[in-house]
Write a structure and sequence with these properties.
Elements (H helix, E strand, L loop, with lengths): L10 H11 L4 H7 L14 H10 L17 E7 L9 E5 L14 H6 L2 E7 L15 E3 L3 H19 L14 E5 L8 E4 L5 E4 L2 E5 L1 H11 L6
Parallel strand pairs: 1-3
Antiparallel strand pairs: 2-8, 3-4, 5-8, 6-7
The chain binds a DNA duplex through α3, β2 and β5.
DNA sequence: TGATGATCATTA
DNA sequence: TAATGATCATCA
């Protein structure tokens, strides 16, 4: 493998690259890419995702667009336990808090980001040193009809509440497959929203997250994994 | 033990 | 500040 591959030309090439990584350990990738493996992820929370970006040829940067803009594909690493079940929720995108108009689901930032996702499972058991964690078989996924319906339903309900200035009432308990949670370096980071009185208010930024049971169902639908 | 709310690093 | 990459830490 080249040390830092250029962007893939098409989805097939991207998937082939990801499949070539399956079974290898994070420490192997770090060597190939000439990167140091942190002792733990406490102060390097995005390290695994960025390692995969480099290994697959994604353009680095924190732009509000898919990791592979030409292909319309979003890359997501998915921390899984020994049974292949996701251990964490998956961040998708920032939740719009200020200029929220009732747009169509199809045109939403969320729907566009989730239109095509390359899921890369990565072992993530606390006892397993970072360098020894293995990369799993990747999955190039698009929502099926049922998944799209679930996502759309949650998105519409949550967006509606924000439209009504009810952000303050939204907790992570809303949403069957999708949730809104704080997304910031710390609780003092503020962004603007409009409350139910129509007044400007400063609140902690939020993001849309996929619940683990949803991403777990995606893996089970495509791979023959235990239901438990 | 799982889910929620809080937090960390980096780039533009 | 706001977007990206996420996991941490606490509590029910």
């Amino acid at each position: 493998m080249p040390q830092r591959p250029p962007p893939p030309h098409d989805a097939t090439e991207l998937l082939a690259r990801a499949e070539a990584l399956a079974g290898h350990r994070l420490g192997d990738l770090a060597v190939w890419l000439d990167l140091d493996v942190p002792a733990d992820l406490r102060r390097h929370k995005g390290w695994v995702g960025q390692l995969l970006e480099l290994a697959l040829g994604a353009e680095s940067g924190s732009l509000a667009e898919p990791d592979f803009p030409q292909l319309g594909i979003e890359l997501k690493s998915l921390p899984v336990d020994a049974q292949g079940r996701p251990r964490e929720s998956t961040y998708v995108c920032t939740a719009p808090l200020e200029a929220v108009t009732r747009g169509a689901w199809e045109e939403s930032w969320l729907a566009r980001k989730l239109a095509r996702v390359l899921w890369v499972p990565v072992e993530a058991e606390a006892a397993l040193p970072l360098a020894e964690r293995r990369i799993g078989t990747p999955l190039l996924w698009s929502p099926d009809a049922e998944e799209a319906t679930l996502l759309r339903r949650d998105w519409e309900e949550l967006t509606e509440r924000i439209c009504h200035g009810e952000l303050a009432a939204i907790t992570a308990r809303f949403g069957e497959v999708l949730q809104i949670r704080p997304k910031a370096a710390h609780s003092r980071v503020l962004t603007r929203t409009v409350n139910s009185e129509g007044e400007l208010e400063w609140v902690n930024p939020r993001g849309f997250y996929l619940r683990p049971h949803f991403t777990g169902a995606i893996l089970r639908r495509h791979f023959d994994l235990p239901t438990a």
